[in-house]
C-alpha cells in the first residue's frame, strides 16, 4: 500500500468528483478524519447528496476516488444512514468536512 494521503490531498481529489455527480458535500470519518491514517487505511467518506444527486452514483464516486487515490474506499450517502445508530454517532463524532 502507498503512504497515507493528507486531508488536503483527499479534498483536492474528491471535490471535482462530487461536482460531476451533483453532490452537495462530503466528510471524512474514521482514521483519516482522526489523523490516525496509516499506509493500510481506507478512506471512509460520507456523501451529502443534493436535489440533483442520484444515490446510485455512490458506486461511481467510490470507484473514481479509488482510482485517483490508490486507496480502498468506503462511501455512504447520509440519507441512507439511521441517525439513531451507533455507526451514525461514530461518523458524526469523527467527521471532517472536505467539500
Account of the 3D structure:
- The protein is an alpha+beta fold.
- The chain has one domain (7-97): Beta Polymerase, domain 2 (2-Layer Sandwich), CATH 3.30.460.
- The chain is 39% helix and 21% strand.
- The chain is built from 4 helices and 4 strands; from the N terminus they run H-E-H-E-H-E-H-E.
- It has helices spanning 7-20, 31-34, 58-69, 86-94, and strands spanning 23-29, 43-49, 73-77, 96-97.
- It has a 4-stranded mixed β-sheet, with helices on both faces.
- Helix 1 runs antiparallel to helix 3 (58-69).
- The longest helix has 14 residues, at 7-20.
- It is globular.
- The model has no long low-confidence stretch (mean pLDDT 95).
Radius of gyration: 13 Å
Physical arrangement of strands within the biggest beta sheet: 3-2-1-4
Q: What is the 3D form?
A: globular
CATH level-4 homologous superfamily:
Beta Polymerase, domain 2
What is the fold-level CATH name, i.e. the topology?
A: Beta Polymerase, domain 2
CATH architecture: 2-Layer Sandwich
| First-residue to last-residue Cα separation | 25 Å
CATH class: Alpha Beta
